[in-house]
Amino acid sequence: DTGVSQNPRHKITKRGQNVTFRCDPISEHNRLYWYRQTLGQGPEFLTYFQNEAQLEKSRLLSDRFSAERPKGSFSTLEIQRTEQGDSAMYLCASSQDREAYEQYFGPGTRLTVT
Amino acid sequence: ELKVEQNPLFLSMQEGKNYTIYCNYSTTSDRLYWYRQDPGKSLESLFVLLSNGAVKQEGRLMASLDTKARLSTLHITAAVHDLSATYFCAVPGGGADGLTFGKGTHLIIQP
User: Cβ of A43 under 8 Å from any chain B Cβ?
Assistant: First the structure.
């Protein structure tokens, strides 16, 4: 297993369009997280899945954002009616149910909304 | 609300020098993570600190955790240019096991 993968790596879209990102976690990891990172800032937590259950959502996750993990494997993050303020790097991470819960991050999807 | 503060936010230093980055957090936590990020790249896990007094070392980097003081340090010994990067500390909370990150310390090591 080569680690967490994300697709696409870059996405340019016009304001008002919908976009969807995919994350494939490390295969034996049952926890999956989404974060958003803007330039010069640390990542901000968006949401978290344990298997297929979405257990936590940040207040940053407005109703335009939705995330799914239908079979407890890959996850998708959709942003509807994109705004320029949505431009950021969207990072996915996964971890196992072990003491450390160490999160391994994917390469990210860079979204630019024009 | 959980807050994580790093100091300094920017550090320029010469090769061969020692320095320490500080990470303070506002609520009780028994775990703390350090990550490295190179420009345009994702985050690489450096250290996981799981208990009070935990100390971990990897090469020229050493991290420690004092849960009573809510303080972690990342010490750089005899810095080399390859360590230039942004370093983040993170603490669980503010969202179940979702991590709350500091703003990062942008480290530049000059020859």
Answer: yes
